[in-house]
Amino acid sequence: MSSLEDRLHDALTGDDPGRALSPDLFERVVGSIDDDRRRRRRLRHTAIAWGAAVVLATTAVTTLQREGIDMPWWVLEIATTLGLIGIALWLGPFIKRFGRAYAADVFHDNPLTGKSYIVLTDIVYYLIFAAYIMFTVNFETTYEWGPDVSAAQLKVETARVGGILLIIGVLHGLNIVLMPVLGRLFSLNRRLSGTDQR
């Protein structure tokens, strides 16, 4: 069979062991629509939760400043660090969910390599996040900040969040570009080793 026929066969038969297949195509389509609705609902709830957290944090800081109550510098430092950890725990599975299908398409000749590749990129992802958080965390205030939260500290903390998003975005973009090249190399290597054995 050709590659297109293989892909159509896999899509229609659904070789996923965790999924119960229905002999009726209509039921499978309805199930797929329900899955899509659940995913969209989950994304909406996540976006609402993040938006509410940002609004609450902004309101709290504004209220404290309006009342003349200064917030110690370490409160914002801890909040930013917890925010970075939250982004890491949320963004990792989000990228992985959509990366599985891409890796399966790229490594269609050798699915085990694709699964291993996804696991290894997950490890790299969390190592980069952990290293970035440890490199950028502050354990004492600087002379520019003072004992309370200031504009200089807000700039640094915003740069911390923007920095990790930029790093992960660039690395993810490189991964998207390089993965087909690696998939092609692995596929070519496998074909060459197969012809050598004959």
Question: What features would you describe in this structure?
Answer:
There is one protein chain. The chain is an all-alpha fold. It folds into two domains: about 1-70; about 70-198, no CATH class. The protein is about 80% helix and about 0% strand.
Sequence-ordered SSE layout with sheet pairings:
Elements lengths: L2 H11 L11 H42 L6 H34 L4 H26 L14 H47 L1
Which descriptors would you attach to this protein?
198 residues, mainly alpha, 2 domains, elongated
Structural class: mainly alpha
pLDDT averaged over residues: 79
Low-confidence stretches: none
State the domain count.
Answer: 2
Using only C-alpha atoms, the radius of gyration works out to 24 Å
Strand content: under 5%
- How many β-strands, per DSSP? 0
Q: Which percent bin holds the helix content?
A: over 70%
